[in-house]
Amino acid sequence: MNADERNIRAGFEAELRNNCLWTRAYVAKRANYIGILLVTLKLKKLLMKAALLGVVAMMLFLTGCASVQPARTQAAEPTAKDGQARNETVKKLPPDLVFELMAAELAEKQGHLDQAAERYLAAAQISDDPKLARRAAELASQAGKTVQAQIAVGRWLKLAPKDVAALQARMHFSLELHQIDAAAEAMVRLVDLYPKRKAQAWRSIHKWLQAYRESDTTRAAVNEALKTTAQGADAEALLARSELAQFLGDQERALIEVSQASQAVRNKEVQKPELARRILRWNAALAVAKGDNQGAIDVLQLALSRDATDVPVRLQLADRIIADGDYAKAIEVLDQAPQANIQLLLARAVYGFRQHDEKGLQQSYERLRADTKADPSRRNLYLGNVAELMGDRALALDWYTRVDSPELSEKAGLRRAALMLEAGKMEAARAQAQPLSESADDAVAIQAYTLLSDIERKNDHPNAALEVLTRALAVLPDDPRLLYQRALLAESLDLVYMTEADLKRILAADPENVGALNALGYTLAEHSDRLDEAAELVAHALRLAPNDASIIDSMGWVLYRQGEFEQALVYLKRAMELAQNDEIVSHMVFTLQALGESQKADDMLDDALHKWPDSPALKRAGEGRDR
Length: 627
Fold this sequence. Notes:
The protein is mostly helical and about 625 residues long.
């Protein structure tokens, strides 16, 4: 054996030790002692004959990791003992395996991935090395042969039943082939691999399924896996399972899982305070999404009973109580906090403002001003907020000017700009907002662009306002807040094509964006004859937010446009019970007119015009009366 051959052999042995694969074709290409090269996949008989006639050196290399000894720095000449070892190797290695491996390698080199996968799979059926089955699955997937890949994964799992990558591959190909039971089984087996870390296992599955969120097969498989593994899950695992179900849109299953976790908290089975808090807050959020406000209140009260100092939970509880219309009880919840907190004082001021409680608002202001322990900049920002609620613009501006921390100064600047805009000081507002539009904080920049657009609108330059939002979207492309604002502004300019395009961009990224669903449905009802499409969009929004007055109003208007006046009236009455504004009243007036109840429509319109004398919507309704 010459020096070149020794170097080739040493390098090949090293590669075998590293990769544990038997399929390196350069052995056939470079090792002069092999004596034959594979010319075509059809030469199986010739190849088998050559293998049996003495390709001894190659066989040594194809015996796998266990038989490869560390390469020596200077390889010695072959001895009689070496020859005997090679002969033993030949006896152990099936000739069919040699053929399948070399055929697979040649097919891959020539770009025939499906043939290579087939040959690797054939080799995997002969060999006990799972890496061959994995390679077969990889090549079949690259060739677009999903069924073949799934078969290869089956062999891979038979050889390595606890291989995480194999189970993930099983999930992947099962979902691609809509095989619900197989995908669910793979998920269950993955979780079973980690009996003491089931929560982490479910979160890993959650992360891995990001690309399959919209698949009905995925939802069905996950639901099946969750039902199969329902017994024995601890509270943290139940939380992870709930989050996964909610991510896939199965709100009912999500609530079932987290309710069980909350029961564990009630039974004092959860020792970690932060975990208990996460469970209860998540339960409350899901209850709210379902429309079960009392259920949310119950779990938040439980959370607060465990830790009375938890300010976010206290605020969330007060907010849920207010949703039931009980402001007095909500304020009582805030006042029962064991320690003074400026967030609670600000919330109390907001509730007082909503209840027209000037005395309570003033008390909140005084208590906030007297709190010298709070961060000065944050306290000054909140004092500015409360001064705005009190209607004292000058006082608010004064407090906002005193906010000097880098973290909060931009927020204070936005409020100063907004107050200047309200006061009609357009140029001062522009000068304040313009630099903020270049903020590194996207949220600040978006609000600044919104203010700059509002300045143009109030100056009766709607096209300039639209241009501001278009510039903003060039800097912050696809931001849903900017797209939504531009869509509404475009609708007011009768640029319906732009409105539809912007709202559809929002929905492409977030199919359950309630605002976009409602706005697009309303726009189609108002400006087109695509009423069935409009009804479908608004109905989708209503399923997601059944108590939203603006969406209920939209459904009423869609029904009005479809000529279903009686049904429209039902929805519009409900909308007015939840919130009264000029738009809802105008729709009610149109509907009453269509039903022949002219006197009731006139009385309602007159009352509304006293309240909103400059409303374009009411003026349009008045034009209908005049006709």
